[in-house]
Write a structure and sequence with these properties.
alpha+beta; 5 helices; about 25% strand
Length: about 200
């Protein structure tokens, strides 16, 4: 896991779908975040009977809470084609906010196309990351292949600073690259890290 020196990198905003190691065969898989709401008491029977949602009672600081969960890919129907939701409840309520930081243990669904696994999974990040390389006890990870390729191109470039901030001071869309821990950016480290990243994204 990344050390405390890479704390800013650890808390990069996370997309709704991330690449993970399949818990069964360790091949490349995709993890999609689940989303829950606290429905009105009058709507609880609907969610209890539905085959597209799971219900759960949890104890919070304010007492017991009733949750209705939508686990993408596990229910009988996709959230976008469920048109009989209770009044006031929308499909969008069950869609995670884009790029919300979720680095604690999180509920979701893992799907592996290699072994056909499809199951509920509790994400532990970055331990579950598929695109990751180790260097001197530190781990450099990426949410998906696109991010891994961006990191690879950045580390093997001779103009890394220019790729982030231009002479006019404009910050590029990949300004998060500045948060990559220094241990991976030293001249000595880059050769080994780049070699390992090439193997991972191949």
């Amino acid at each position: 896991m990344t050390s405390i020196k890479g704390k800013a990198y650890m808390w990069l905003p996370m997309p709704n779908i991330v690449s993970v190691k399949c818990p069964h065969c360790s091949c490349h898989s995709e993890f999609s975040f689940s989303k829950s709401i606290i429905p009105k008491k009058i709507d609880r029977p609907y969610f209890d009977k539905s085959k597209s949602f799971k219900t759960q009672k949890v104890l919070s600081d304010s007492g017991w809470q009733y949750l209705a969960w939508y686990d993408p890919g596990l229910g009988k129907r996709n959230i976008d084609v469920i048109h009989d939701l209770p009044v006031g409840v929308k499909a969008e309520d069950f869609k995670p906010n884009n790029f919300y930081v979720r680095h604690n243990l999180s509920r979701g669904v893992v799907v592996c196309h290699s072994c056909s696994l499809r199951k509920l999974h509790t994400l532990t990040w970055p331990d579950d990351a598929f695109f990751e390389v180790d260097y001197k006890g530190e781990t450099l990870w990426a949410f998906n292949r696109e991010m891994a390729l961006t990191i690879l191109n950045y580390l093997q470039s001779s103009d890394r600073k220019k790729r982030i901030i231009s002479t006019s001071g404009y910050v590029s869309q990949h300004s998060w690259l500045r948060k990559i821990p220094t241990v991976f950016q030293t001249k000595k480290a880059r050769r080994e890290v780049v070699t390992k990243l090439r193997k991972v994204v191949a």
